[in-house]
Amino acid sequence: MVDGPVVTVRGEAYREVAPELAAFTVTVTARDRDRETTLTRLAERAAAVRVLLDGEDTAIDRRDTGDLRVRPETRRTTERVVAWHGAVTTTVTVSDFTALGELMLRLAEQDQVEVAGPWWSLRPDSPAYRQVRRAAIADALARGREYAEALGARVTALIELADTGVERPMMARMAYAGGAEAGGRPELDLDPQPQSVQAAVQARFAITEAVLS
Description:
26kDa_periplasmic_antigen, SIMPL/DUF541, elongated, DUF541 domain-containing protein
């Protein structure tokens, strides 16, 4: 229990920083009337993508294959299977953006491949988060002192500090579908999108008795 006057304020901080990671997805597809043919083509195309990614292993931070789908296509009025569809998706994450556009286009040139992304982000342990939280605390302290000074008082102690959240908006994506009909490789320059980092805190300070005139 605090005896004496208390001031409650909200501290905020906002920064735009360069992204540290870029992620994109590579989806390989296959379709045929025969199920085994569909699976064989899907495996062959996925292997071709894997070989290409293996050749770029030093530029890739992480890759995860997380979505495999095989489904039948049936006629509307019956359960007769007229074709089989297969797809497998791999997520690729890189931190070196110099060859990102070229890598995405090389993947998109593969037969029956769709490339989507990139999604720009910061690392989970990025120093930017710590810096913006510290700035939000400094803002709360400055506001508390300003309110106290306006009352002819001064801040004497911190009673409570609560984190009210950090926002990281999602970024838009691009998509490129490849295949034998895609033609020659175009030039693609990607501009990393700045990441917005915001922090807010609520602080309660004990202050000396106000001087009201």
